[in-house]
Amino acid sequence: MGITVQNITGETAMVIWPKMAGCVDSFYSVMYHPNWNSMVSSYTRKSFQKEERVPTSRSSFVVENLTPLTTYILCVTCQSANPSSDQCRVFNTLERDPASTSNTKKELALGIWLTSSVLLLIIAAILIYGCLHLLCRRRRERLQGQKGTSKEDHRKAWTKSMAYTSEELGRQSQLMQDSEGKHPGGIQLATIIENPSACKEPVMPTSKSRERVPM
Q1: What is the count of structural domains for the chain?
Q2: What is the pLDDT of residue 1?
Q3: Residue 34 placed within a domain
Q4: Domain co-membership, 30 together with 90
Q5: Could you tell me the pTM of the whole model?
Q6: 31 has which bridge partners?
Q7: Both 143 and 105 in a single domain?
Q8: Are residues 114 and 87 in the same domain?
Q9: Given this model, what pLDDT does residue 163 score?
Q10: What pLDDT, on a 0 to 100 scale, did the predictor assign at position 98?
């Protein structure tokens, strides 16, 4: 078939083949396998590690993700047919390209940096949410404490007022009792003033009062 392998690097290789008249409205199968010495001589499709299907409109294909410093066998057939020896080529990949190595390291570092940034953002969001939740809870507790304090102050004021009223009533009651003990006549007079009907009946003077009346 005149298959050629060109532009070989440590991880890629380009294979070129002439178009076949029998593959019209079909596809080409590009099969390759590392360590070709381990393959059987029958070249069956099952012996190949990977297989790519290419449209018939194309006559070249770039094989990627190869292993550096490795011997490969590559075959091109029409529509997944078992290849023959004239449809295969053997080639060796080169060392890993330093530029690709640096690019890989840069991609790895970028991936690590992005992952770390995302994790830091998540942690910061969690911390901010926790702080806001804690502040809101403390503010709610403070407001509830102020309401409870105002209610307690009102209750204490009311209790104090009631105690003061009770004390005043007790003091007035004591004063009245004292006045009754000292001035019984005054209490009787107050009773007469409050009860005018009591004046209809004559008040009989006591023995002491009789003695004091002049003859």
Answers
A1: 2
A2: 67
A3: yes
A4: yes
A5: 0.45
A6: 51, 75
A7: yes
A8: no
A9: 75
A10: 66
Domain with 108, as residue range(s), is 98-154
Is residue 21 located within the same domain as residue 41?
Answer: yes
Mean pLDDT, contiguous 10-residue spans, the chain (215 residues): 88 90 83 72 70 90 91 87 84 79 76 90 91 88 77 74 75 72 52 49 48 47
CATH code of the domain covering residue 11: 2.60.40.10
DSSP labels, the chain: ---EEES--SS-EEEE----GGGTTSEEEEEEEE-GGGS-TT--GGG-SEEEEEETT--EEEE-SPPTT-EEEEEEEESSPPP-GGGEEEEE--PPPHHHHHHHHHHHHHHHHHHHHHHHHHHHHHHHHHHHHHHHHHHHHHHHHHHHHHHHHHHHHHHHHHHHHHHHHHHHHHHHHHHHHH-HHHHHHHHHHH-GGGGSSPPPP-HHHHHHS--
Residues 103 and 90 in one domain: no
Q: Which residues of 126-151 are buried (b: 16+ CB within 10 A; e: fewer)?
A: eeeeeeeeeeeeeeeeeeeeeeeeee
On the CB side of 164, CA atoms within 13 Å amount to 6
Give the per-residue pLDDT at 195.
52
Alpha carbon separation from 127 to 20, 138, 165 (Å, rounded):
66, 16, 56
Are the beta carbons of 36 and 49 closer than 8 angstroms? no
